[in-house]
Amino acid sequence: xxxxxxxxxxxxxxxxxxxxxxxxxxxxxxxxxxxxxxxxxxxxxxxxxxxxxxxxxxxxxxxxxxxxxxxxxxxxxxxxxxxxxxxxxxxxxxxxxxxxxxxxxxxxxxxxxxxxxxxxxxxxxxxxxxxxxxxxxxxxxxxxxxxxxxxxxxxxxxxxxxxxxxxxxxxxxxxxxxxxxxxxxxxxxxxxxxxxxxxxxxxxxxxxxxxxxxxxxxxxxxxxxxxxxxxxxxxxxxxxxxxxxxxxxxxxxxxxxxxxxxxxxxxxxxxxxxxxxxxxxxxxxxxxxxxxxxxxxxxxxxxxxxxxxxxxxxxxxxxxxxxxxxxxxxxxxxxxxxxx
Length: 340
Ligand code: KG4
Ligand code: ZN
Fold this sequence. Notes:
Elements lengths: L2 E6 L4 E8 L2 E9 L11 H22 L9 E7 L3 H18 L3 E5 H6 L13 E6 L4 E8 L2 E7 L5 H12 L5 H9 L24 H14 L6 H30 L3 E5 L6 H13 L3 E3 L3 H4 L3 H15 L22
Parallel strand pairs: 1-4, 4-5, 6-9, 9-10
Antiparallel strand pairs: 1-2, 2-3, 6-7, 7-8
Helix pairs in contact: 1-2, 4-5, 4-6, 4-7, 5-7, 7-8
Bound molecules: 5'-O-[(R)-(carboxyoxy)(hydroxy)phosphoryl]adenosine (KG4) and zinc ion.
């Protein structure tokens, strides 16, 4: 059994966790809410904020789990993909701790971390499973056979699902991040009020595309409401947009589960907090006798616990010795690690 200190700083959350035996003993998340006034994450400000927060977040993770650094067996850190400046803050901090305390460092791919985030709370999850990772930066569907054996079934060709929520929210005049704002208003709206395209739902593959939806909402608003969207239409518009995104996510995930005969679906990433996605995915699972796990909100959003969880599996498989090489670099690109 190992005790791992994990660090996540790929975007706008500074997070640290203590993981042991697949369980999070602490999971501290410091969110950079100030980006909302700019309508999106400002990379330079994000890295500066990580620099300020990281020591305290790491100390908090140790303190709140009653752990001292001397009890730690290894450091885990998100090394890719993400904002380069933000990744560098986390990876350099991890390397610094490694040099100071003689600890191995396990670099982890952020999206791989998301894939297994459901396992943190649901120990009954068995492979194989279909994992849908949907966040502000990624939309990806995986078939996962074990902790080190997965394949990418599909990716977004343009905007990520969360990006679509955020950009459309901006068109409607809602604050950033747009996903939670749309989710909230949609609860009071009619999802069939307006008909928006379900892009690529019938494309026959597992790829996604969301930029067309954003464009059709823009045209719709310009044509139907040139003087601005009336307040009483907002809920219906949010519900209709959300339905279009959710239908595609659910449709493709269900198709994959059927094609590969898989009975477990795990959704992860910030968008997996969406209430309509959870409801419709669960209903879709019922129709094919499958079950769904959606992580608690703290494991849906970017968090260090999921990074530490996967690191522990790698450590158990490969041992400590291979992780003393500190020459790994922060890598902003998502796709590299996806190619098997
Ligand atoms: O995983 P995450 O915290 O960070 C990234 O790696 O991107 O995801 C953030 C994204 C944002 O786009 C946000 O709008 C979206 O997740 N999001 C939601 C909801 N909560 C967060 N989207 C739809 N419905 C929600 N309830
Ligand atoms: Zn993420």
